[in-house]
Amino acid sequence: MNVSHHRPRTIKIALAAAVAAVLLAGTACSSKADGDDADGGADGVKAGPGVSAGTIKLGALTDLTGPYATLGKSIVQAQQMWADEVNAQGGICDRKVQIVVKDHGYDVQKAVTAYADISSDVVALPQVIGSPVVSALLDDIQRDTMLTFPQAWAASLLGKDAVQVLGTTYDLDMIAAVDFLTRTKKVAEGDTIGHVYFEGDYGANALEGSQWAAKKAGLKVAGQKIKATDTDLSAQVSALRKAGVKAVLISAGPAQTASLAGVAASRGLTVPIVSSAPGYAPQLMKTPAAKALEAMVHVVSAAPAVSSDLPGVKKMVASYGKKYPGSPVDSGVLSGYNAAQLLGADLKKACESGSLTREAVVKAHRSQTNADTGLGTPQDFSDVSRPASRSTYVLKPDAKAVGGIVNVEEAHEAPGIEEYLSSRG
């Protein structure tokens, strides 16, 4: 297909430069763990790694310098805000909470080294960014009985007692995305939809969901696999246009979503685009792709928009804005704060049982069947083989809203999800 070489090239260069400048700015942050007293305190609470008479240490393996730098910064700051709030109220189990942060830059080998550095000095990990990172650490996490909340939602991470995927998994999100497209009559039986997805667990799991849902709806899927380093999606847009797609799903990062929407709009492929939550960041509203994103994109997410009217969300947004006035409030803030609150509840429950060992913290977590932080839908952590939630919101980019996004549909379970989960055993 022949396409004019001048205007699209100018647009894609401008997009790539703007998105790179906005999204790849990260601030490295780390702190060193001190030795802990494994005997615990005079209160008789049994302790273990990461717990002393006066301190509970948690670990964060994050991305502050790679493709998810903006997400990492938001999560780190939100969890630090939670720790500061908890400590101002006396801490947990009469101990101050400290978070040890390590930046892996979305590099698996760096993450493995970082885990080795901190694993003996922390009791749990309320943040580990990246499906490839978590996959590489699974054996170590299980061996160490280290309660871990990945900022990754691949179904391959289910079934592990110490690893908790919060909310839905990528496949359920894409089933919900296909349901949204068919239910709102954006696509019809016989149509072809595109799916642009990262290589690895994230994209592979998302594709499982889209293919299953598409088959049920009588749709065809034209897949386009990309790398995390691919930020110019011109070739993919050309292929999708040639395939005659009526809509596009994307399971990638913010830079890729911006490129997809911007290039597609410039080439006349003005079809609906539905992204997973990790594929959007409010910083995109400051790039040349902003108008295309507002016009074409929806986001499927287990969490509500940060502009939501939920009292818990409004309180969190106000606190975060006061503590970090120069930082945007995005989904990472909500995700990070929610994870920290859930872990805090686990630690309190473990303390009540008389033990803050890692095993006790995992046991306390798995006993929660209706965990509700007020930041979305309640979650059930008792079945390690099933997602903690099946309900998703539909969101839409909006430059004027807090966090650059608004709720379009409230949380609901898409039809077919129970059937899908049962079919997978």
UniProtKB/TrEMBL annotation:
InterPro entries: Leu-bd, Peripla_BP_I
Gene3D superfamilies, A to Z: 3.40.50.2300
SUPFAM superfamilies to which the protein is assigned, alphabetical: Periplasmic binding protein-like I
Residue numbers spanned by region Disordered: 364-388
Position of the signal peptide: 1-33
Protein family according to the UniProt entry: Belongs to the leucine-binding protein family.
CDD domains: PBP1_ABC_ligand_binding-like (cd06343)
Location of the Leucine-binding protein domain: 55-398
UniProt keyword list: Lipoprotein, Signal
Pfam families: Peripla_BP_6
Protein name in UniProt: Lipoprotein
